[in-house]
Design a protein that fits this description.
Layout: H1 17-31, H2 35-48, H3 53-65, H4 69-82, H5 87-99, H6 103-113, H7 116-125, H8 129-142, H9 147-171, H10 176-188, H11 192-205, H12 212-222, H13 226-239, H14 244-256, H15 260-273, H16 278-290, H17 294-307, H18 312-327, H19 331-346
Helix pairs in contact: 1-2, 2-3, 3-4, 3-5, 4-5, 5-6, 6-7, 7-8, 7-9, 8-9, 10-11, 11-12, 12-13, 13-14, 14-15, 14-16, 15-16, 16-17, 16-18, 17-18, 18-19
């Protein structure tokens, strides 16, 4: 459950001096985080003035602050008997019920209080996934840095996605989309032969579905089957000539096979479609360097470093720049780039292409 920050501003209604004394003592104890004392004082106030809903709400709040969620439920229910439309009582009772695992019972109270965060969590617990995603997304937009909200939104979204895919597989198991979904699952599990088979079946059924050829190409690229990857990526670029990723993937596959001129043309096209994609720029730098265009290579790799500060791709760019400057007889600049590369290595940044620094 999300952390509960409870601040209620309930006016102390006309009460006897003795009741007021206990309310004040309870409030003072709350400020000092002496919640057991606060519970005792608010309970005395509620016993002396049992017709005051506010007194029971304050007692319930003190129980919540003491993390005694079960203890909070009876006084909060009593508050609602006395004042059925009292929103703070609905909100706190919703919290208490949710914390105790009574998510279904908590929902109507949280709906009444319009507490999107707690309501979304309760809906997630009872399987109302669409509503949970909607409320948690709204709550997260208002409080984007709350880790619990980020977690619950991600969990709800993931379960909703799984539910949708499970329904697809159960209802239309022989459809192209079902085969695509299965292929994507196999790909995540690194079961590449099964992924290849499922993608090919999806393509056989519906060869015009966007991304299918791209995803198949990624399967081939993962096992360095570059001619097959090139074929798949080329098919995707014909289907989606405006896809920067497809152009990049094709350019990289061509580069891996030494088809430098064609690769560079495709990478330039990718960069034109979506400027400043770091992966495109890094490969574009490699292609330019292989064609002897040092200025273009330097420009591309420097941009990678600027965009990807501190990442593995930045480490690769630093290493590439060091090699470029050594070829240009610029020892000081080469040494600087190697220092940056070694610094990233020492910080635990992985590097796929560059060999360990000597």
């Amino acid at each position: 459950m999300i952390r509960i920050f409870i601040t209620l501003f309930l006016a102390w209604q006309a009460s006897s001096p003795e009741v007021m004394q206990h309310l004040q003592a309870g409030a003072d104890a709350e400020k000092n985080r002496q919640y057991t004392v606060a519970i005792s004082e608010f309970r005395k106030a509620a016993e002396l003035d049992p017709q005051s809903a506010e007194n029971f709400v304050r007692l319930g709040q003190a129980y919540l602050e003491n993390r005694d969620y079960g203890g909070a439920i009876p006084p909060l229910k009593q508050a609602l008997k006395l004042s059925p439309e009292m929103l703070p009582a609905h909100q706190l009772l919703g919290y208490a019920l949710l914390a105790q695992g009574y998510a279904a019972q908590a929902i109507p109270h949280l709906e009444k209080a319009r507490d999107e965060a707690a309501l979304g969590i309760a809906q997630l617990e009872v399987g109302q996934l669409s509503d949970a995603v909607k409320n948690l997304q709204s709550a997260l937009a208002k409080n984007p840095h709350e880790p619990d909200l980020i977690y619950y939104f991600g969990r709800a979204s993931g379960l909703l996605s799984k539910e949708s895919i499970d329904n697809l597989l159960a209802t239309y198991p022989d459809s192209a989309r079902a085969h695509q979904a299965m292929a994507e699952n196999y790909y995540v599990l690194r079961q590449m032969p099964q992924a290849e088979s499922e993608f090919n079946e999806a393509i056989r059924l519906r060869p015009d579905i966007p991304k299918l050829h791209l995803e198949l190409g990624l399967v081939y690229a993962g096992s360095a089957q570059w001619p097959k990857a090139e074929e798949a990526f080329r098919a995707e670029t014909k289907l989606q000539p405006g896809s920067a990723e497809a152009a990049y993937r094709l350019g990289n596959a061509l580069l891996q096979q030494g088809k430098v001129k064609e690769a560079r043309a495709e990478l330039i096209r990718s960069d034109g479609l979506q400027p400043e994609m770091p992966e495109t720029l890094y490969s574009l730098g490699k292609a330019a360097s292989l064609e002897g265009d040092s200025a273009a290579a330097e420009k591309a790799w420097k941009k990678v470093v600027e965009l990807e500060n501190g990442t593995p791709l930045a480490a690769q760019a630093h290493f590439a720049l060091a090699g470029l400057y050594r070829k240009q007889s610029k020892p000081e600049q080469a040494e600087h780039e190697m220092e940056q590369f070694k610094k990233l290595q020492n910080n635990g940044v992985a590097n796929e292409e560059a060999p360990p620094a000597q």
